[in-house]
Amino acid sequence: MPYLEIAPAPRVSSGLGTRRLMWEVLVTLIPVVATAAYYFGAAALLLIVATTTATMGTEWLLTRRSGKGSTRLGDGSAALSGILLGLCLPPSTPLWMALLGGAVAIILGKAVWGGLGFNLFNPALVGRAFLQAAFPLALTTWTAPQQGFWTLAPSVLAPPFMRAATDATTTATPLGLAKFAGTFVPPETLILGGIAGSLGETSALVLVLCGLWLGLRRVFDWRLPVATLLTAALFSGVLQLWGDVAPGPLFTLTSGGLLLGAVYMVTDPVTTPLTPRGMWIFGAGVGFLVVLIRTWGGLAEGVMYAILLMNAVTPLINRLTQPRTFGTGMGAK
Amino acid sequence: MGLRDMLWRAQTFRHGIHPAEHKDTATLPIERMPFVDEYVLPLSQHTGAPSRPLVVVGQKVRRGEMIAAPDGYISTALHAPVTGTVAAIEVRPHSRGVPSPAIVVRIDPFASQRLEIDADRPTAATTPKELIERVQRAGLVGMGGAAFPSHVKLEVPEGKKARFVILNGCECEPYLTCDHRLMLERADAVITGLRILMRQVGAERGYIGVERNKEDAAAALTAAAVDGGDIDVIRLEVKYPQGAEKMLIDAILHREVPSGKLPIDLEVVVNNVGTAAALADLAATGKPMIERVLTVAGNAVRRPANLLVPVGTLVQQVLDHCGGLRPETRQVILGGPMMGAAQKALDVPVLKGISGILAFTDPVAQIAEEPCIRCGRCLAACPVFLNPSRLALLARAQAADVLAAHHMMDCMECASCSYVCPSNIPLVHLMRLGKAAVRSRKASR
């Protein structure tokens, strides 16, 4: 008789694994990174490689002695955090800051919580928030796109903790222009790209296509990005009707980090609610906070803080939106 | 009730999963498994107290003769599947994993094995009370898998009434096709059984829920039910676990069985189509439950089939009849792939509640468990709207009181959560541990 294996039911499974989910997301980041490289040149690739090296290296250092026999690099989450951190940095960020931000993203954003699945905040955004707090000037200095592939802002290669030579080519982001100068970049430019800003937020079109792909393949729950974008559009639409300074829904959706955040960070399963109603609340909260910060805050951009704030209340949202068990409450009749 | 339900109410329940169907045996007619030398009949093959043996070693028994009597109300009788001699009453391997007392019947190779028509069979004159007693004596159990003694469901408790009888013809587990073939080939028996059930409990309407991947069976039942408009064949969306009692009632009557209550609290009685056919056979000839239809399938089976197998035939013998297993066989499951139990050996007998023998050559996925990423897929799959992710953590902590407060006992172990989990967390296994923790806490109080 053959040797028969025993295992708990069920024998069949959907075949969709954590690793595959991570790799699916990583694959859709290829066009986003390519767009960043197209507009910002080698600096984009250098920065993304730097953040990713830092996150993966830190993850390796911290998990190689975890006693599980192997490191956790294979699940792809460290690589994902690294690329996302790189994508939300300005193109003139010094490389050493990128490396530092990557290490902080893994240490403070994930490892101290207990590793993958236990972190409260999005690791990439923790790294970004750390850099913004520590180096506010470098993280709000923007260079214009399309200056030639090999043209690096001098600050990129600046040695650690040294003030870089003043960059002559700095410019303002569309959101900065809208907030502080009252001028609006036309939507077609925002949609196609070629604007100043963080590496990953330049082309709305690429981000929308990647988001559609991931959503249709059920890699993430569609409720999260849809709730975020819908709320941001509605809220900014309402503001536009009442006050004529507000930029309106189309500009709000296509400018700044909103799409990057909605497609790649609001959809992070770990740091967002797991109940369907909770997902709607989370997304709505992010959309609302983004418009709130952009309109009345001191910053031109608000996606990072909006998501981190909603990350903080995710356990509470989960608790308040526990599903109604079948045959209880309204359903039992 | 959600917005979606108000706008569009499909003939199904909410949540659930769509595993690959693999119903390749659906076109194979039911064939009779030939007799073997020896039959092993465990005294416990139904929910409730084990049967009490009525025979002694060496005693001659007739096919269909009662060899063990019900021991209490939630218990049922056991019958000789062949004419022969009681060879032993001893502990034998059991598919539950724990060897259990069984009556071993050795066939008489010269006996005709003809089943005599029982003069004591139920008729139109039989009172409901007599039928309950008769069904218990015939050893009928639910044939969908739980093997709950059928006579218990035939009694409407004091102060309750039954307006609807629902027959479960969903067969939502992948691979299994025995109910499909039964409905197709014995539609008349299924309808007759349903009418007996309806008359017995005083129901005004009968429903048969059939998934849309069995249109031919649904058509056969509709044709068989032609006289009288009190029976509806309901075509249901193909979805797992559509055949779970609560899900079936929700799909057909759009009502949720309250937590901790039974279908009868909604004036509903649910039975499997196989049970209805067995009831019709009992009424026609007095035949007790001595055989059942089961599906033999999976890529390790050389000749898959739908077989009418005498209860007590060893799994090994059934597989031998189907051409034997391929040498590279890695796993054998009794029941469906979602809820069936993997077996460590094949010397266990076919029981009344076993609907399939599945054998596979591909190894059990040995993918390591990953950390929970809180994606919520298990919540979206759970048909009773639990939070398996959270319950799994609580089960690991054996937090019985918190588990109970989170409706742990409403879990019916359908394994949809395990199926969808991208982190390979053995969720349904943890749900069972959680339920055990709640039960033992209750018992210790």
Number of helices of chain A: 13
Structural class of chain B: alpha/beta
What portion of residues of chain A is helical? 40-55%
**What oligomeric state do these chains adopt?**
heterodimer
Strand order, largest beta sheet of chain B: 1-14-13-17-15-16
Strand content of chain B: 15-25%
Radius of gyration of chain B: 22 Å
Terminus-to-terminus distance of chain A: 53 Å
Overall outline of chain A? globular
Secondary-structure-derived class of chain A: mainly alpha
Tell me the fraction of residues in β-strands of chain A, as a range: under 5%
Largest chain-chain contact?
A-B, 44 and 69 residues
Q: What's the tally of helices of chain B?
A: 14
As residue ranges, the low-confidence spans of chain A are: none
Mean pLDDT of chain A: 89
List descriptors:
heterodimer; A: about 325 residues; mainly alpha; two-stranded antiparallel sheet; 2 strands; about 55% helix; globular; B: about 450 residues; alpha/beta; Rossmann fold; Ubiquitin-like (UB roll); 3 domains; 6-stranded mixed β-sheet; 4-stranded antiparallel β-sheet; 14 helices; about 30% helix
Structure overview:
The complex is a heterodimer of chains A (333) and B (445). Chain A contains 13 helices and two strands. Chain A is mostly helical and 333 residues long. Chain A has two domains: 17-171, no CATH class; 172-321, no CATH class. Chain A has a two-stranded antiparallel ribbon. In chain A, helix 3 (77-87) crosses helix 4 (95-107) and helix 4 crosses helix 5 (123-134). Chain A is globular, with a radius of gyration of 21 Å. Chain B folds into three domains: 3-27 and 119-285, NADH-ubiquinone oxidoreductase 51kDa subunit (Rossmann fold), CATH 3.40.50.11540; 33-115 and 290-360, Roll (Ubiquitin-like (UB roll)), CATH 3.10.20; 377-444, no CATH class. In chain B, the strands form four sheets. A six-stranded mixed sheet of chain B has the order 1-14-13-17-15-16. Chain B has helices at 3-7, 128-137, 150-154, 178-185, 187-201, 215-224, 245-253, 273-285, 315-321, 377-381, 388-396, 400-405, 416-420, 427-444; strands at residues 30-32, 38-42, 52-53, 60-61, 66-69, 78-79, 84-92, 100-107, 164-169, 205-211, 231-236, 268-272, 291-297, 305-310, 331-334, 341-342, 356-360. In chain B, helix 5 (187-201) crosses helix 8. Chain B is of the alpha/beta class. Chain B is globular and about 65 Å long. The interface between A and B is large, with 44 and 69 residues.
